[in-house]
Amino acid sequence: MPELPEVQTMVSDLNKKILNRKITGFWSDTPRIFRYTTIEKISKEIPEFKITEITRRAKYILIHLKRKKENKLLAIHPKLTGHLLIKNAKEKENPKSYIRAKFFLDKNLVLSFSDLRKFGKIMFGNKEEIENLPDLKNLGPEPIGLNPKIFTQIISKKKKAIKQVLLDPETISGIGNIYSDEALWMSKIHPFRAANTLTNTEFKKLHKSIKEVLIKSIALRGSSIRNYRDTEGKEGGYKAVRKVYSREGLPCYRCKTPITRVKMGVRSARFCPTCQKI
Description:
Elements: H1 4-17, E1 23-28, E2 34-35, H2 39-45, E3 50-57, E4 60-67, E5 70-77, E6 82-88, E7 99-105, E8 109-115, E9 121-126, H3 127-131, H4 134-137, H5 148-155, H6 162-167, H7 176-187, H8 200-219, E10 260-264, E11 267-271
Parallel strand pairs: 2-9
Antiparallel strand pairs: 1-7, 3-4, 4-5, 5-9, 6-8, 7-8, 10-11
Helix pairs in contact: 1-8, 5-8, 7-8
Pfam family, one: Fapy_DNA_glyco
Organism: Candidatus Harrisonbacteria bacterium CG10_big_fil_rev_8_21_14_0_10_40_38
Domain Formamidopyrimidine-DNA glycosylase catalytic: 2-120
């Protein structure tokens, strides 16, 4: 699943390539990916809107649109296998690219949403209405800019396993499965430790590790362990430097103990049983 660094990479690419472009048309054959809107509504309303800004909130890509005095917002969540591609309209499309929606732009550009599993989410409507939907309004604070004291105050109240807390977007938004494993390994904290049992020193280490791992992955344009690709269809570079995620059975980089994978609800936690004591 694209997490904060992958989504930020897409947002940065979009700002370089389609900012100030005008939307001329829309196509989709996948109704299930739309929330609070329909294919017909977008097809009718979105033409002639200009892309004025592209931002990120947690794992959402927010495309801000303006037409005269109208302000709309297009919000895209990649979910498990979604990503955005930018191509020239004349380019031949790969039949295995799993395109579920297309936004046709001026200058012969096409912004396409690829999603193998069809779990992605697209929302469109008046800017204030979309921003006030629970999907966005209930999101927790962003992890990179979060003050360490506030981080500790938020997390220390939770009784669940620390990894589960980090995965909750209403607590801290955008961290995700890959980077929670990586940050916990860096901090030497067991993923099943109850969050409220961490010491102040451990909270400081964890806060620092989360920030470091996210910034590093953004610099490397994300992680392409499975389906993620950037807007040109290229892989991210974080996969080559990961410490624990998807390394089960391989030796820990610190102590050589094999990395363990344990189910945690619908997710899994990867950790070193020697370095990360419970």
